[in-house]
Amino acid sequence: MEDLKKIIDVNLNSEMYYKNMSNSSSDKWRLNYHLEPPFGLLNDPNGLAYFKGEYYIFYQWNPYKCEHKDKHWALVKTKDFMHYSIPKAVLAPDEWYDKDGCYSGSAIAIEDKLELFYTGNVRDDKGNREAYQCRASLNQDGELVKKGPVVDKLPKGYTAHFRDPYIFEKDGKYYFVLGAQLEEKIGRALLYSSEDLNKWSFEGEIKTDYENFGYMWECPSLFNLDGKDILIFSPQGLESEEFRYQNIYQSGYIIGKFDFETLNFKHGEFRELDLGKDFYAPQVFKDDKNRTIMIGWMGMPEEEDKYPTKELGWLHCLTMPRELILKDDIIYQVPLKEFENYRIKLLEDTKNIICNEWNTDALETNSYELLLEIDRLEAKKIELRFLEGKDEYSSLVFNFEEGSGFLDNNKLINGVNSVRRFKFNNDKIKVHMFVDKSAVEIFLQDGETVISSRVYPEEGSTGLRILAENNVNIKDLKLWNLGEMLYE
């Protein structure tokens, strides 16, 4: 009863927050069109599904403190990615098999039911970990009913770092893939199967070419896109390189052909999904339009003390939903078409301007969308400078002689100092950038490269400029100010 009362109190406080305070007025870093918690800490997206005409988006939530403890599942629903239900806590760590956290998992819609699978985290008095893969069902009243563990034993040879079930159906059979760790402290992905969702059998380890690739693989997703099998996972423990693995932990994918009989996966090279400093633990699902949609956590564990909103009582957000499109064995990511509905006014519409500097005075807030296409002409370097104020700015730089670029946040006063580098090979640059007060998502070259970063500009730091050493051709530039998501 005490746990039930705590959930009711959390949900009432959440409802009061959204009814009495608009996101735009609560503080200068509150977001307009990214999902974030009213209070506490948000992390992994969970249970993504299209069900009965609505998108269900669950996420990890500690509603009590900005700490990675007491993990609940929150739920928001939307029909159009603009109007949302008020976030509610729907799973709480209140049973023996999940008492130390309802960890990440997924959902599957089966006829008129939504079935959820998640990891129950349990620790003893000495801190030793146990992991249970658990099931919950959404009943006709819209309430989640826990059904307890469906996998309660570790397979031999693996540690209790055994979590994040991603469920799917293939040829009339159900499967989930799990993140795991060998006793030798090496990351792996495991496969389970079931005929009825109740009894699950261990199929074995997914056999990839990556024998020693980090010490843990978190949040795996296994799915098919345009006839190719794709395994997304988040390996921990990769050594940082100049253009790869620049974060504490990474998220990426391998693509090829997976054999469900032998568990052999013939695949290409691991490729990161997002080169920004704030992207982790993504999950994918399909909707009624047959789109493959991905949402990630726009944050990074073990850096929380450097995020200034922690002192304000809230941390992190989810990325914008992105549609995944396969081209030449590379996943391209594009913002959903629905986000065009956030456009309020076209502030700039420029074509074929030859110059070495461009700027605008049309921006009054950092809630905007920029579409930009530039031909370098003779320029060796181009800089897109944004969030510019009296004493700060962020910059996106393209160096054509080196064939590389970077996003530099070191000149911002607040937040985590960072430079994230990327490669490119084209004289024509395409930038599709979304700025949302304290979040930036940048889609380059039609979404081939994506860079996501949390930023915390001062009031009035809304400057936007293009700088080049020689003349460039701004072939196309469109700039819109954007509105807010609505909670109902």
From TrEMBL:
Coiled-coil residues: none
**Keywords carried by this UniProt record:** Carbohydrate metabolism, Cytoplasm, Glycosidase, Hydrolase
Against InterPro entries, the record matches this protein to:
ConA-like_dom_sf, GH32_Enzymes, Glyco_hydro_32, Glyco_hydro_32_AS, Glyco_hydro_32_C, Glyco_hydro_32_N, Glyco_hydro_beta-prop_sf, Suc6P_hydrolase
Asked whether the keyword Mitochondrion is assigned, the reply is no
Q: What does it catalyze? A: Hydrolysis of terminal non-reducing beta-D-fructofuranoside residues in beta-D-fructofuranosides
The record places domain Glycosyl hydrolase family 32 C-terminal at: 362-481
Q: Which compartments is it annotated to reside in?
A: Cytoplasm
Against SMART domains, the record matches this protein to:
Glyco_32
- Specify where it is mainly localized: cytoplasm
Listed name of the protein: Sucrose-6-phosphate hydrolase
Could you read off the lineage of the organism from its UniProt record?
Bacteria, Bacillati, Bacillota, Clostridia, Eubacteriales
